[in-house]
């Protein structure tokens, strides 16, 4: 007897310019099942689900619902087919009430032709959905007044209210506290028991045995395997995700110099809680942690992009009580942000101008820009970092992700930064360029720079770093030295699991 | 629908009351029935325009053309009245406004031209057309009956005020209770989210400008009636006043937030301020200065308060 | 200097040339020296004002108050000139313009209020101030130097055009060759990226408005020279035409894109069009319509050639 599948995706292939996101991937889902989908960044999880939710179209392969081949042509079509998605980015409209957000585009209406919205009915039905989920949220409240966690739950309510039979959760617990996570899991279990099929994407591996029935690992666009979630071999799972040896042998030790970046008692209410850390010259320090643990916020606080409520930053020995971007850049600190397009580059400007952006104070005489010098410096950086661009005048928006990241790096090298913070340095970059970036980071450290690398890619940290700090909920909860570093240990600290045996502390 | 109104909107009625009291003390005529009816008559045009502007702003855009549309409508409607009678004239005027609104909407939603540019172009075009049609001369010999629309009264209320009141009510219903109004707000609040939810975003954006144009047409007719003639030059500067009224009333320039009730207060505030200053014999020049200063203070105060929250 | 607005940069001079050819063929009077001088005179003021607007738009803002700042600067300067002479008058105009710009810039940069609203308020405030100071009257009796400035020529070129060109050159150099100019482009291009790279964003946003105000003061000087008097209503409408000319010249309303030389041609095209159409007998009203239509068409064509935002 063949099994009945709610969803079958067969041989799904999706290509983007320059990268194959998915290659012949199979994925299926039974009704009343929670199927967890895991993989590193860029493994293809989101792409696969975007195909299912109608945002993308596959280049090859087929999708079957209830055994029938379907084509999910648009997000609206997905909703009509009974597929509901809870995206990572919130789609709530802040000025609108919770009820209106839940029923956006599907408002109950008395007289259809006139388009009068039946607010009473909408409130009632919203309250019903919220009650179903056990959420004590007032449906008349503006969505903007909700906490992040509540907003996430309203997104769930929104998807459920479409009477979806298949729900896709993309990193739903990223911003949730433990209690809220348990609540969400209870909700998901209830839905599952009602026969809804749930696809659950998560980086939080510890959640898998809790909530999942099966788990599938994707790596580099391919399906590695599917296993039952019960009695899961976590180490094996991690190995499947990483696909390579846990410990890279290539790392060479460097001489560590003086402290180049120091942070004491950094506090930002609600976000950072008494953070201390030190980076020395010639050292590559890693910062691991789950999404939402505060790593990016820490980076931004250190460089002065966000205000502090307390604490001190020391750059090259000089204390800065109220960091500002201007000051930290002047003292030799540079940040390569998580979203390089949004925060790291001026896309409409040419390569040359992006590279010189942090060094302009050196490139002028009485305000007059020394363009020849600027061009020279830019060309030098392009050659040194092997940035693939026809010339320095090309607008940065036309460069590939890897080359854009190199431009950001070039900017800081040009400004002679002594300490660099990389936030997800290889996000969205193909394998070849990744290796180049790693080499660059290592040679920077060889040259005496102090580097802090924030990454969700554990093998990356293990390869690059001399030691790895782990953050959880705004604090540094653990530190793992090079020799004892394993992915399991880092994850243990990140989840706050009791298996973390090494005490939290500084180097 | 419960929605937290910005501080500025909550405080506006209070400020209005305070200001009214001050003026009343300084010049008792301020609260006389005669004066208040006068004010009501005068603010009607701005009121109608402000509603139209509100639609454009909450959709995430802006309309710089209503002042010029009024000029063109004034000319077109009066020319039509002289030739064919009052009713066709009114219809032509309001229709003209709607037509120009359709053009604005097509440019913004169809051709994806930034609203400021599209309506700026329309501003020039409409003003030019208004003058071109009449060679710069006003259209006189308009039958008296038409002027009743502007100068007449229904009981104690001036006709224009009644019309403005009806417009406020209708706009409120559209924005707060009809799907099309909710969708226009949604497009302004988050166009991508709205699109993902299946809302026809381009249509809604265009609709906002059609409504704005239509209301500008209505305002043009009313103003022409009050003047008793068609004037190609009228309405200049009113676009800025309508923006000020909407913003004072709580509309956010990025779109997605704004209420008719707030706009009512915004209009009342500007009108009463102007009238009160007039009565205490502050020159119209000083009035301009005061209004500008008030707008700035209001926005800055609002921003400061947001910073504390 | 960044190469931005690619195709537009070649298109504009070509269009200007084409227009000259067409008009020259249709009416020989167009190609005369005195007419060329006319065109230069007519474009002088708009060139300076458009440049002022360019500073603000490039750094991510907008200045609706330029016209009114010209008004208040020119009357104050005229009054000072009558009392103390040419040079003090000129300095006053520049200082008043810069001061207004500083207020705008301070509010936008420090309080992070929307430039649209701040300058909208300043528009009213400054115009009111100009009217109050002069009680609505023209300021006459200015030193002869003003008239010379406005009407003399140096060789074949009108002095006023030389002044405007000098101002433009100054702005061109500032924007294209200095650190400040680079900072402005980047702040408009991506404010957060600029900030994270250590650019003093707030300072330079303030400076952009300061420049705009100072240039408005220069425009006030040119206006006074042309009309040989100080008039409180000087500059009315220039805020909108400066936006139109800048946008036509390739300055993107998003900020961070466009070259000053494009603005030069944008202004020239408007001036040539106006001049040519007048010679051909088109009423100024029809001209407004045509300008409006062409403006929109040009922007649309340019938008089509660019990748989506």
Name the strands of the widest sheet of chain C in spatial order. 1-2
Portion in beta strands of chain A: 25-35%
Mean pLDDT across all residues of chain A, rounded? 85
CATH class placement of the largest domain in chain A: Alpha Beta
CATH topology of the largest domain in chain A: Rossmann fold
Number of strands of chain A: 22
The domain count of chain C comes to: 1
Backbone shape of chain C? globular
Number of domains of chain A: 3
State the helicity of chain C in percent bands. Answer: over 70%
Unreliable segments of 5+ consecutive residues of chain C: 1-5
Question: What characterizes the major β-sheet of chain A?
Answer: 6 strands, mixed
Based on secondary structure, the structural category of chain C is mainly alpha
Strand line-up across the major sheet of chain A: 6-7-8-3-9-10
Averaged pLDDT of chain C, please?
89
CATH architect. name of the largest domain in chain A? 3-Layer(aba) Sandwich
Describe this structure in words.
By secondary structure, chain A is an alpha/beta fold. Chain A has helices at residues 45-52, 75-80, 98-102, 119-132, 148-160, 178-193, 208-211, 234-242, 295-303, 325-331, 340-344, 351-356, 371-385, 401-414, 431-446, 458-464, 487-495, and strands spanning 7-16, 19-29, 34-38, 60-65, 68-70, 83-86, 166-170, 197-201, 214-219, 222-228, 259-268, 272-280, 284-289, 310-315, 318-320, 333-336, 364-365, 368-369, 419-423, 450-454, 467-472, 475-481. A six-stranded mixed sheet of chain A has the order 6-7-8-3-9-10, sandwiched between helices. In chain A, strands 16-19-20-13-21-22 form a six-stranded mixed sheet, sandwiched between helices. The longest helix of chain A is centred in the middle third of the chain and has 16 residues, at 178-193. Chain B has 309 residues and is an all-alpha fold. Chain B is 77% helix and 1% strand. Chain B has a two-stranded antiparallel sheet. In chain B, helix 3 (66-84) runs parallel beside helix 5. The model of chain C is unreliable at 1-5 (pLDDT under 50). The longest helix of chain C is centred in the last third of the chain and has 27 residues, at 201-227. The relative contact order of chain C is 0.21. Chain C has 309 residues and is mostly helical. The A-B interface holds A 75-76, 79, 91-97, 100, 104-107, 109, 114-117, 119, 140-142, 145 and B 1-4, 177-180, 182, 185-186, 189-190, 192-194, 196-199, 256-257.
